[in-house]
């Protein structure tokens, strides 16, 4: 990629907790894992524009053998010259099965179960990202909401479950929760990416995800009028991402059809019907 061509990078690297990715060994020795990531961070710094931002989603990686991976990655990035802007606490509300208490009702050796992940935000060279004021598309309500660094966003329920299982394996006799065959073991929710894109970039900026997975960043970037670069070693994930982005762009074109022109009435009715069916399915899932 050309130097200084990206305005915002958002990624969540493999967590190194033994998840079943399509084309990656997710169980390296800890120090080897950190060193494996350094060349990616160097390349990110090269391709970011001056003032470009990097949002890194990372989580505590174990309980009994706790590794402060968020601190260690911050140290590595600061050594490379990144400016650390802030940290966002993504509260996921995922604690449903509380069996690993440690020493129950005793200070002898109690355990804390993480119900959050971090989004660490860095800049290259400058705190300021230059751009046209007219291309800033965040609303006042969104700005106020997103500038509070405590983000309560539900996770992708089936996708994040394997990560929780890596902290505590299922109890004896219990089956491991089923995963979608075509899915990624740790996708982040679109709302998380939407907030980062709207808060930290302008319309027509370039957004990059170097561990692109199944294309959440690319999809939301397209939806919000940004350019996107999706990278992943897995052809399977790239194929899923391409279909996902294509579907998003197709829907955007349909949404642009004027409803008040007679020749567009049939197409408009089809879009309305599709949206209605989608809304019903969405409500059913929430129940």
Provide structural commentary.
Helix 6 (216-223) runs parallel beside helix 7. It is globular and about 65 Å long. The model is unreliable at 159-181, 265-271 and 280-287 (pLDDT under 50). The protein has 287 residues and is an alpha/beta fold. The longest helix has 22 residues, at 265-286. The protein has a 7-stranded mixed beta sheet with strand order 5-3-4-2-1-6-7. Helix content is 38%, strand content 16%. The protein has one domain: Vaccinia Virus protein VP39 (Rossmann fold), CATH 3.40.50.
Topology:
Elements: E1 6-11, H1 30-47, E2 48-58, H2 69-79, E3 82-91, E4 116-124, H3 140-146, E5 150-152, H4 157-167, H5 190-200, E6 206-209, H6 216-223, E7 227-230, H7 235-255, H8 265-286
Parallel strand pairs: 1-2, 1-6, 3-5, 6-7
Antiparallel strand pairs: 2-4, 3-4
Helix pairs in contact: 5-6, 6-7
Short description:
Helix content is about 40%, strand content about 15%.
* Major β-sheet profile: 7 strands, mixed
Instruction: Round the Cα radius of gyration to an integer and report it.
Output: 21 Å
* CATH fold type: Rossmann fold
With strands numbered from the N-terminus, the spatial order across the biggest sheet is 5-3-4-2-1-6-7
Shape: globular
Beta-strand percentage?
15-25%
Overall structural domain count? 1
Note poorly predicted spans.
Answer: 159-181, 265-271, 280-287
Number of DSSP-assigned strands? 7
CATH superfamily: Vaccinia Virus protein VP39
What's the total helix number? 8
| String of helices and strands | EHEHEEHEHHEHEHH
The end-to-end span amounts to 44 Å
Mean pLDDT: 81
Name of the CATH architecture? 3-Layer(aba) Sandwich
- How would you classify the helix and strand content by structural class? alpha/beta
Main CATH class: Alpha Beta
Helix fraction by DSSP (H/I, runs of at least 4)? 25-40%
């Amino acid at each position: 990629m050309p130097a200084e061509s990206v305005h915002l990078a958002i990624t969540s690297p493999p967590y190194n907790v033994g998840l079943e990715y399509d084309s990656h060994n997710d169980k390296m020795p800890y120090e080897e894992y950190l060193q494996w990531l350094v060349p990616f961070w160097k390349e990110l710094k090269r391709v970011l524009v001056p003032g470009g931002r990097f949002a890194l989603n990372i989580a505590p990686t174990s309980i009994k053998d706790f590794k402060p991976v968020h601190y260690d990655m911050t140290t590595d990035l600061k050594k490379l010259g990144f400016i650390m802007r802030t940290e966002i606490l993504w509260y996921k509300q995922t604690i449903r099965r509380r069996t690993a208490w440690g020493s129950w009702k005793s200070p002898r050796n109690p355990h804390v179960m993480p119900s959050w992940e971090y989004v660490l935000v860095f800049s290259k060279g400058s705190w300021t990202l230059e751009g046209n004021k007219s291309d800033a598309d965040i609303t006042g309500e969104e700005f106020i909401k997103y500038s509070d660094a405590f983000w309560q966003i539900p996770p992708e329920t089936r996708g994040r479950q394997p990560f929780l299982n890596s902290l505590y394996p299922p109890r004896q006799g219990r089956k491991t929760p089923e995963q979608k065959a075509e899915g990624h073991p740790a996708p982040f929710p679109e709302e998380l990416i939407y907030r980062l894109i709207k808060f930290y970039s302008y319309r027509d900026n370039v957004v990059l995800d170097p561990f692109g997975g199944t294309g959440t960043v690319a999809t939301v970037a397209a939806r919000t009028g940004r350019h996107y670069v999706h990278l992943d070693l897995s052809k399977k994930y790239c194929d899923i991402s391409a279909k996902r982005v294509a579907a998003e762009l197709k829907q955007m074109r349909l949404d642009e059809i004027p409803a008040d022109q007679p020749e567009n009435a049939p197409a408009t009715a089809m879009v309305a019907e599709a949206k209605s069916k989608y809304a019903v399915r969405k409500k059913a899932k929430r129940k």
